[in-house]
Amino acid sequence: MLKLGSIRWRGKCSKHPGYDPYLDGRGAIRGGCERCGLLADIQTRHTEMLALMKRFAPAVPKRRAEPHNNRQTSLFGEIEN
Ligand SMILES: [Zn+2]
Predict the structure, then answer these.
(1) 19 Cα–ligand 1 center, Å
(2) Which of 29, 41, 48, 63 has its CA 20 to 30 A from that of 74?
(3) Got the DSSP string for 15-63?
(4) 14 in a domain, yes or no?
């Protein structure tokens, strides 16, 4: 059995605070910056980890709610005297 806690993590390069590996990709790393490279590595591994988890246990599709057409009784025509 494997247990992982939820992780909330932030990392920012002090020299290139605007660099976002998700949006910019590895090609946007300036001057071979090691910190930006690490951010890109972390992003890559995170994406791979999520894909592995999804492969191991695919998301269960949500059940569609059944239509409620016949649930409400008619207010007219069913009153007996
Ligand atoms: Zn950087």
Answers:
(1) 7
(2) 63
(3) S-TT--HHHH-GGG-GGG-HHHHHHHHHHHHHHHHHHHHHHHSPPPPPP
(4) no
Cα(61) to centroid(ligand 1), Å: 40
pLDDT in tens, 3-52: 999 989 999 999 999 999 999 999 999 999 999 999 999 999 999 999 99
Range of the domain at 30: 21-56
In the chain, the number of structural domains is: 1
Task: Compute, in angstroms, the gap from residue 60 CA to the centroid of ligand 1.
Answer: 39
Task: Compute the distance from residue 40 Cα to the ligand 1 centre, in Å.
Answer: 10
**CA of residue 51 to ligand 1 center, whole Å:** 27
Query: Distance, CA 32 to ligand 1 centroid (Å)?
Result: 8
pLDDT tens sequence across 64-80: 776 666 655 666 665 55
Is there a domain that residue 26 lies in? yes
* 44 within some domain: yes
Gyration radius of the chain over CA positions = 26
In a domain, 16, yes or no: no
